[in-house]
Amino acid sequence: MFISTLITVIVNVQLHQRQDTTLFSLTISAHNK
């Protein structure tokens, strides 16, 4: 369920701006740690 949310966010980011992708990547890195 959480994975589905990630996929949705990723798709939305791709549809908006690539700058958001960088912010999203930083967020994922923080969660992985």
Kindly describe this structure.
The structure is a single chain. The protein is an all-alpha fold. The chain has helices at residues 2-15, 18-32. α1 (2-15) packs antiparallel against α2. The longest helix has 15 residues, at 18-32. The N and C termini lie far apart (20 Å).
Number of distinct helices: 2
Shape: flat
Q: What fraction of the residues are assigned to beta strands by DSSP? A: under 5%
Largest pleated sheet: none
> How many individual β-strands?
0
Cα-based radius of gyration, to the nearest Å: 10 Å
**H/E element sequence:** HH
Structural class of the secondary elements? Answer: mainly alpha
Helical content band:
over 70%
Low-confidence runs: none
Strand-helix topology:
Blueprint: H1 2-15, H2 18-32
Quick synopsis:
With 33 residues, this protein is mostly helical. The chain contains 2 helices and no strands.
Key descriptive features of the protein:
single chain, 33 residues, mainly alpha, 0% strand
